[in-house]
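Form 7-S
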Amino acid sequence: MKYLRTLRLTRTNAVELVVNKMLNTESKKVRHDNQDRITRARTRGFEHTYLKHACNLPLFFSGNDLKVALLTENNQDIWRYWNDERNQQSLASLFSTERMEMLVKAGIKGCSNVLYTFTHEHNGMKLFYSMMMPEAERQERQLFWHVGGRRASWRAFRLSVFELSTDDMLTISKHYGELVGHDEKLTHFGILQEISDDNSASDYLFTEKPRLATSSLNRFRHPRNVKSQPRGLYFDAKSRRKEPRYQFRSPLVMTTPEGNTISGATVDLSKHGASIQLSEPLSVPSGSIISVDYLELKRYNQRIPLNQVPYEVVRLSTDRKTAHLKIVESGKTVKTIAFFRGIIESNQDKLVAQQEILPSSSLLEALHNVLLGKMVSTPVYVDKRGTSVKCRSVGVNFPLPGYLQFFERIGHEQKLALEPIFKGRSNSLLAEPFKRKPGAKPVAFELYIGVLKLGDRIQSIHTKLRDEFESTQQRITFIKDALNMGELYILRVTSGPVYDALTTLMKKDINELLSLSLSHARNLENEMTAIIGYCELVDITEEVLIRLEMNS
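Output:
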């Protein structure tokens, strides 16, 4: 069976008449509608899985101000990368007014740029540096590469920014306003993709280092006083809190590692953590271990050392007077944790639990529709049925990007051929990254595909991972041969395990399908739960040519 995608160019009711003629009885209409709902639910299942596991970071803006970041299972490292030494989110500082004016121009629906970033530790502060391609002359860019490329914090991102349509703007702003409790007009959205990290940083040192003073990079340093912090929302609207927090005020004295003491009081309390308000700023970085003396609580049980409870500083407020703490778990604190559990359980009628703000299904649906229209990567779903592990499904948008057109060209029976990526590498690209280990994160690889052609005919296909090249010079030769004799595709392949493919919205779709067909609902759930791994393909050909200065 062949399918043809068409677009109606003239006003006519011919299509409606044909459909009405074909569906001329109520039973035919019901059967057609039901089949459409089943197909739609299956498609949405894969869409939800993509949005839940996407490795890029979707961002939403109100004019020049960053307001929302949409968090997924796999973009946590990008989000945390922008935490400073206080564990305060400083991503908003990436989007200066001048930079946003360059990205968001009237009448331009969307644009894309490469951002290079690194961090520098100075006097206990974590300073962020970033440079967008159009913002620097060649020598400044070369110096930025040489200074940043020697650091573990080196990253290259692709930032794509799009204007929201009027309808999307109204819908998203309405539901987001309901979430935050006040009107907030969201006007643009962006997608931040990591396309290079410190594993490929040596490429940026291949260029000649210019004779410029390092101080010339100061203009690319982010300001410390971030005007606002974006709200992080998870696409799957489930609470990430391990335990509830309760409003609870009790006086205390904190002792720093240096022996300094600061008075304060708890704001909220849980079995394993606390938020406290201090009388003066706390001058220690996040991750430090401090001691808390609960001045009143220690009177209730003098056998427990509530005068020196060890906590780790998780996050500090901008003024450093509010600290979020996590108890240091050990044999010595078991009784302390049990004490807090007892206080909470015996005072349930008095304590007020702090509510976590979660996005509504309506807001998630609105964000879902916007993001799917601007896919900047290709999701590949890997499932396991019995003992068979296969890449059975790929998510695409039309028109297909160049590398997918190539996979389609060498495929059979209307299917994409992914052999150039995975053949001979299923262990390194799939099996190993998909292992469900504690703390498992997505793993990224650079894959080079050279297509040698004679006229329009493909003679041979050569693929190599970055690590399979013996030297940078050999990799450059590979790139030159592919460009001169055919086609070159350089992909960033990111692979990671899928622990639970089902999302809140997906479960809602399955429940709606139950009233229609029990077997189809069960089949859809089985198909989604069979997904064990997720891969994401991003075309980085242009950026690799730029970093190796071969783009001319």
